[in-house]
Amino acid sequence: MPTVTKLYQTAMQVDSGQLLAHIISESNLIEEQHQLRSLLERNEGRPLGLAGGFAPTGELVMLAIADKSTIVIIKFESKKSNKHHEHTISPASNTAARVFLTQNVLRRTTGFLYAFDIAPIALALSQTLDLRIANAIDVQCEYRKHAVGDLHDLYDENINEVFRDITIVDHPVAAKNGTTSLAQRAWIAHYLSQLSTMEDRFARVPPVDTFRLSDEALGFLAKSSKDSFQLEQKKPTEVTRHFATSVDHQNNRINAQVDRYLSRIRTGQHQRAFIDIGEHAGWGFTVDGQVVKSQGCIAELATNNILSFVGKTIGSIKIVGRGDPTQAEVQRAQKVLEILQGLINLHNNPWVQLIFFSSPKSNFQWPSAWTEEANDADVVKYCADRVTVKQMLRQSNDGRLTVIQGPPGTGKTTVIASFVQMALDNGLSGIWLIAQSNVAVKNIAEKLTDFGLTNWKLLVSKDFFEYWSVFSLMALPL
Which residues, in sequence order, are bridge partners of residue 7? Predict the structure, then answer.
């Protein structure tokens, strides 16, 4: 029998009445399909809300489908299969249930599906369950908070709680809380799809359709998405540090300054700050607050009380909760979404096709501008590793990729600068140097300057630029 949970939405001041959440195991879906079928029949041609619950390792373990009064949650059985604690779900074990889901939900012929962050759900459906989805609208493409706030009071703290964590863990209490948040996310997505103020906006959003993607393209995106999810889960959820601080007594704010970019305090809508306060008499206490502004090496914190900081000292600051996504992470997610919406064709990118796809098209050719060979006789004079630079300058198909490995201080950045100088000497242009971090890009820029190469543009995240400019950016030719 399905598990039935009664709940009330807590995100906004809307009399939604009591909501019923039916949790059905995938293995019992065919025998117990009446609740889901009833929901689908009364919403034929109408929008439905969708939300996904993920294992901490990125697999989709629950899928919620909602209308205005009912949420049906499909629970996919999984087990931890290896030392990395990843969850596996057999693609063939519940074939009938997945055919039913595809025909009636994921590829319904009338009526759209609405979800927050539909791309991770679509890609997890593919990688975890070997399922595809169509006619799915990403709510965040056009959602504007004022569209709801002008109609109803919003409870920001409750909304943050609902969207704080999309993982479902095995602990009974945490699992129950996760299931309740999952149900509310699906209900909110459905509710927004019904607002007249959002109708024209959502009509402009291209639907996600993974049926039109090749197996190779979808597999590549799904693997990349899962890797990113796992990296996000590895970010610390609690950090305690001492900072150089000052107090704005007029506004009762605390300014904290970091001495390293990696130690910076970032803003986050799901974060809380706990600040240790000391007094001259030796007594101390902790106040609750939040990061209200972060720019460069300075973060401004506000407390949730009107306590004066006059005559008090600031001790350690503990930040609980992950920071908001970085600019690079936001842009990457946007590009993945555009691919799923059909706005970008992965097969038109020669680098992706030859490096990441195992079987490029038979008529594949590199662009002519990518096949200009450098003059072997002019291989860099300044670099001890001439063989490496020569390999990097090759433009033939069997030499596109060069891996340079070595511990810090062994000259990898020097090799990069030598390559750039040689490439420019041979008339090559349009060179992009891309690194995994802002700091790595900075190091390359400094090495190029050492080589007398100054005609370049530096692209780093906004917060890194603001931080770096305080210390060393001004020494570089921007």
Answer: 19
